[in-house]
């Protein structure tokens, strides 16, 4: 009889312990924030660019048909939407005819010269994107009569 009571008390305490653990785990999962799916994050960066830009955006086509969107942002910054992520770059003083922007947080540089644009990873010391051109620059490269000074690089 005593053996049966010991087994019964063990089972009751086990059931109590399991239900207590289940209740605690249910309460802790309520406080965990939900992670946005990748598609919503991508759309969020595109919406963020549309909210922050102060001019029309330009679409650049680089090697291997990689698409990059740029737009002038607030307070003299350049917004770059590339690889489904938004980068905010500040201008770096440089030579005439060259527009240089840098994102110190992500270690990226964007360089615009009259014939093309390039992106560099300054941490790795490598060129990530090359031969990026807007339709205007591409047409100017095919039509040598149009001078580089007539091209607006922000479109």
3D structure, described in words:
The protein is α+β, with helices and mostly antiparallel strands and 155 residues long. It has one domain (38-150). 34% of the residues lie in helices and 30% in strands. The protein has 3 helices and 8 strands; from the N terminus they run ααββββββββα. The protein has helices at residues 2-30, 38-52, 135-142, and strands at residues 58-61, 67-72, 78-82, 85-92, 99-103, 108-113, 116-121, 126-132. An 8-stranded antiparallel β-sheet has the order 1-2-3-4-5-6-7-8. Strand 4 and strand 5 (99-103) form a beta hairpin. The protein is rod-shaped. The protein starts with a helix and ends in a 13-residue tail after the last helix. The model is unreliable at 38-42 (pLDDT under 50).
**Largest beta-sheet characterization:** 8 strands, antiparallel
Helix segment tally: 3
List the strand order in the largest sheet: 1-2-3-4-5-6-7-8
Q: Compute the separation of the termini in Å.
A: 89 Å
Radius of gyration: 28 Å
Helix content: 25-40%
Low-pLDDT residue spans: 38-42
- Mean model confidence by pLDDT: 77
Tally the beta strands. Answer: 8
Strand composition percent? 25-35%
Number of domains: 1
Encode the helix/strand succession as letters: HHEEEEEEEEH
Overall 3D form: rod-shaped
Summing up helix and strand content along with how strands pair, one would put the structural category as alpha+beta
């Amino acid at each position: 009889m005593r053996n049966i009571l010991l087994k019964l008390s063990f089972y009751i305490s086990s059931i109590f312990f399991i239900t207590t653990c289940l209740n605690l785990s249910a309460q802790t999962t309520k406080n965990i924030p939900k992670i946005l799916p990748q598609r919503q994050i991508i759309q969020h960066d595109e919406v963020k660019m549309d909210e922050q830009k102060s001019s029309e955006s330009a679409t650049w086509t680089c090697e291997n048909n990689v698409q990059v969107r740029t737009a002038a942002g607030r307070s003299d910054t350049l917004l770059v939407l590339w690889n489904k992520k938004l980068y905010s770059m500040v201008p770096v003083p440089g030579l005439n005819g060259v527009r240089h922007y840098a994102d110190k947080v992500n270690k990226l540089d964007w360089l615009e010269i009259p014939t093309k644009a390039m992106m560099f990873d300054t941490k790795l010391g490598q060129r990530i994107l090359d031969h990026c051109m807007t339709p205007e620059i591409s047409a100017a490269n095919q039509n040598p009569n149009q001078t580089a000074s007539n091209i607006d690089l922000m479109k």
